[in-house]
Description:
The complex is a heterodimer.
Chain A: H1 3-15, H2 17-36, E1 39-40, E2 46-47, H3 52-63, H4 77-105, H5 108-125, E3 130-134, H6 138-149, E4 153-158, H7 162-169, E5 178-180, H8 186-191, E6 199-204, H9 209-222, E7 228-231, H10 235-243, E8 248-250, H11 252-265, H12 267-277, E9 295-298, H13 302-313, E10 320-324, E11 334-337, H14 343-348, E12 356-359, H15 364-377, E13 382-387, H16 393-399, E14 403-406, H17 407-420, H18 424-433, H19 436-450, E15 456-461, H20 468-476, E16 499-506, E17 509-512, E18 525-530, H21 532-543, H22 545-553, H23 561-567
Parallel strand pairs in A: 3-4, 3-6, 4-5, 6-7, 7-8, 9-10, 9-12, 10-11, 12-13, 13-14
Antiparallel strand pairs in A: 1-2, 15-18, 16-17, 16-18
Helix pairs in contact in A: 1-5, 2-3, 2-4, 6-17, 11-12, 11-13, 11-17, 12-18, 12-19, 21-22
Chain B: H1 3-23, H2 35-51, H3 58-87, H4 94-124
Amino acid sequence: MSIVNDSVLFLVLRRMRTPLIVMILIYAISIFGLVLIPGIDAGGISTAPMSFFDAFYFISYTATTIGFGEIPNAFSYGQRFWVTVCIYLTVIGWTYSILSILGLLKDDALQRALARGRFQRKVKNLSEPFCIICGLGETGALIAQTLDQVQMRFVVLDTRAEPLQELELGDYQADVPALNADAQLPSTLLLAGLRRPQCKAVLAVTNSDEANLAIAMTVRLLNPGIPIIARAEHAATAANMNSFGTNFVVDPYALYARRLGLAMRSPPSYQLVECLTRVPGSAIPELHQPPIGKWIICGYGHFGRAIVQHLDSMGLHDNIRIIDPRSTSPDDHLSIISSGTDANPLIDAGIKEAVGLVAASDNDINNLSIAITARELNPDLFIVMRQSTSGNSMLFEAFDANLTMVTTHTVAHACLSFLTTPMLSRFIREIEKQSSDWAESALAALLPICAGRVPFVWTTRINHIKTPALTQVLQHTDLSIPLSALMTSNRNRTQPLKALPLMMERAGKIILRPDADFPLHAGDKIIWAGSREAWNEQKLTTNYSNALNYVLTGKSGADSWLGKLFNT
Amino acid sequence: MNLEKVVFGFFILLAATLNFGFFIGDIARPELHHVYELFAAIVVNLIATTLKFGDRTQIGAIHLATSLVADLQLIAAAITWGVAVHVLQVGMTPEITASVVSLSGGALFANVVSVILLIAETLMMRR
């Protein structure tokens, strides 16, 4: 028996002790009384008392209020007195016992133990690969929804009950095992299946850096083989996590600053990256062109510092003005000590001739106030805002800044692209190296495919497990199969699939945007962007030789004996 | 001193002593084995069993097992008695008495194991 089921049983037994003892005592007293009191016969002569068996029998049907009318003899007055007492005693005893059982069902400890048992069973029954999401805040919820969309299974842990209730009400395709427990405890993570072979990754995306650190450490020690994706809002946490080999530390501020730098260098590259990392099915991000010139940074916290660093690296060191209420040491940049919410410090910082402003404080309302004042002073300003709480989304939408950095979304997008397409981060590094013309031509090829929505991004690995039919043909025939075979519909081979090959990796070498007639080899890895239907159809082609045969030759194969019979 | 431990030890010992009181005496002579003693032994044994519920330790599990054995034996003795007197109406013949008393003897053995466990557990505890 498992630990959890055991504890439920023991808990119930322990709580039932008092009611059971009360019932035993009441029965014993009642029976004993009846055994002592003499009876009476029809002639009014006193007879021997009831035997133990008669007394037990009588009390059994009286105590349960069955009220069976069958009595051996009419009672004497002594017996009647005692039976009156017995009836009240036993009814009170039963009532007390039943109320105790009902109370036990509502007991918090029991409910928790039962929930753990259910959770453990569900995790045990997961036969597909799954990942563990620790923390179901805004980030966790966004990740959960998207993973569900791309048909990956996951397990959820959170210390709060409300997000888990919302998860139960949510519209999920798969059954999601969720537990209200602290993921920092090793036992909780083990219960969530950390050591199961199907467990593919752990995401530490709670709101607290400390908790994420503890989770990452626990996972590293208990199951060193598993990738950990952890969110870190402070540079110190990120460094700490990296020190013990956390696979993917998501520092949303550094990540966003890097993207902003990319947007300034090459706007189409930025649009391409955003297009590939956002949640599939959402609207295509617009093209933004953050101007190069004088920038004002309001708030020199973690985010502000990350942005300043990137601007510095682009040679804008002398064009940066920092406004921050704390007297920080902004590394030789010109700075003003103020919150920046009123006009004077902004004018002092030179808002009139500035081209851009970053409202980077950790207070959403202050950021809005800064941005509104700044836009009044200089309507052409390019405004980047930081939004910490998604509850304020309506305000930020109403203001309509050029770019809004939503911390939770940034983290979620980064985690998702790492989980669903591990090769994507490599592709993004390649994009960063390419010129804006290259990005523009890639976008021109991508946009017709995705019909205004962010496309699905997936990886095809050519091997025996993922693409058996294709690998079979590649290894056992000299037939050269071009990449275009994977871009052809297996229903009508004259029609192309809505899929674009972005990058191919062959023996460690990278080929960007391979041509359609590029020959495939076993062991290749290809990143695609396209529609979900294209992805499904491509999977079919690579898995079934009939479909592959049709795509390659135009003949529909007849593999089964029935099919052959019909064809001859 | 822990009141819960006092109650626990009290019931275990009382179960054993009552059982012994019923068992002692010539095995075939019904006048030496009173039905009240058997009744008291059953009731106290049941209470002792209930007190042992909900202990997860190994020793707790053995405790519970010995008590369940004693209950089973004593209830079997009571049923034998009842059937002989009321159903078969043969009364307490030496054979019936012997079988009732030997069943309670089995229960006594289980109760003795229980007491030994109690003593062992107490000795193992160090201050």
